[in-house]
């Protein structure tokens, strides 16, 4: 009798364990995304708190704040200086940029310019002679004196429906470029992070265009797709892309091809 009860108890435990296992939600992949092919919202953070390549250094800078603080915040009043003051008007909105290093071109391509990280925006209050004042309306991360200003451009949020991974093209059927920089200067990035590539408007690229990223392989091997990306900002010879889905992480030097 004891043996029968023991067998029934063990069977009940096993059935309960199987039931629990069947109702558990699988953990998401640390790299990929289960909802590939879904609609993705390109948000204000992607459009106004991202980065791009700047051809020339702007002549207008934030020189300091009223209270002398070096880490600035929303509503702070700041002083401006530089040759760009002459054309400013009260109420005008300016985008604040932190200038980073020069981005090196890949292979024989020249450097497309310097890294420019969007740190927020300010509203011009007044311009008197060689000094201007502005109020910070929005910050993205660390905004400090020495940041430069360029005219603010209003951008519309949009949705993109991810398309399937494309196969690598060795011929001239698909325009190819390279990843020049990844977000925060990291070693690698994955889904929802951003990168710079060396293709731009001169190559027919525009905002909303999708690309496939490929990890380089030996010359006799065909590269496999590693990620899907969409253009969120297009310059003349470079563009900022957002990674939609990754099979493997994205690195500097990876190949990109326009779909």
How many domains in all?
A: 2
Backbone shape: elongated
The biggest beta sheet reads:
7 strands, antiparallel
Helix content percent band: 10-25%
Explain how this protein is built:
10% of the residues lie in helices and 39% in strands. By secondary structure, it is mainly β. The protein has 2 domains: 101 residues, Thrombin, subunit H (Beta Barrel), CATH 2.40.10; 99 residues, Beta Barrel (Elongation Factor Tu (Ef-tu), domain 3), CATH 2.40.30. Strands 2, 3, 4, 5, 6, 7 and 8 form a 7-stranded antiparallel beta sheet that branches. It has a 6-stranded antiparallel β-barrel with strand order 10-11-14-13-12-15. A two-stranded antiparallel sheet has the order 1-9. Strand 6 and strand 7 form a beta hairpin. The N terminus is likely disordered.
Compact overview of the structure:
With 259 residues, the protein is mainly beta.
Secondary structure elements and their pairing?
Elements: H1 2-23, E1 39-42, H2 44-48, E2 51-54, E3 60-65, E4 77-82, E5 93-103, E6 113-128, E7 131-139, E8 148-151, E9 158-161, E10 176-182, E11 194-197, E12 210-214, E13 225-234, E14 239-246, E15 255-258
What characteristics describe this protein?
Thrombin, subunit H; mainly beta; 10% helix; 259 residues; 2 helices; single chain; Elongation Factor Tu (Ef-tu), domain 3; 2 domains
């Amino acid at each position: 009798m004891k043996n029968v009860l023991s067998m029934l108890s063990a069977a009940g435990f096993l059935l309960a364990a199987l039931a629990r296992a069947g109702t558990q939600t699988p953990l998401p992949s640390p790299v990929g995304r289960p909802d590939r092919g879904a609609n993705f919202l390109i948000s204000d953070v992607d459009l106004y708190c991202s980065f791009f390549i700047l051809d020339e250094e702007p002549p207008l800078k934030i020189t300091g704040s009223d209270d002398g603080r070096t880490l600035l915040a929303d509503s702070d009043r700041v002083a401006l200086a530089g040759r760009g003051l002459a054309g400013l008007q009260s109420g005008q909105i300016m985008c604040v940029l932190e200038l980073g290093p020069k981005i090196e071109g890949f292979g024989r391509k020249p450097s497309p310019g310097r890294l420019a990280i969007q740190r927020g925006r300010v509203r011009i209050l007044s311009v008197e002679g060689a000094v201007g004042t502005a109020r910070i309306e929005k910050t993205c991360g660390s905004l400090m004196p020495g940041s430069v200003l360029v005219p603010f451009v209003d951008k519309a949020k949009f949705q993109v429906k991810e398309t399937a991974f494309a196969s690598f093209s060795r011929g001239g059927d698909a325009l190819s470029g390279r990843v020049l920089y990844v977000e925060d200067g990291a070693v690698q990035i994955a889904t929802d992070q951003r990168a710079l590539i060396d293709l731009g408007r001169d190559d027919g690229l525009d905002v909303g265009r999708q690309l496939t990223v490929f990890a380089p392989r030996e010359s006799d091997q065909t590269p496999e797709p590693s990620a899907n990306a969409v253009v969120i900002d297009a310059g003349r010879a470079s563009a900022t892309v957002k990674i939609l889905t990754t099979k493997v992480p994205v690195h500097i030097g990876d190949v990109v091809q326009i779909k």
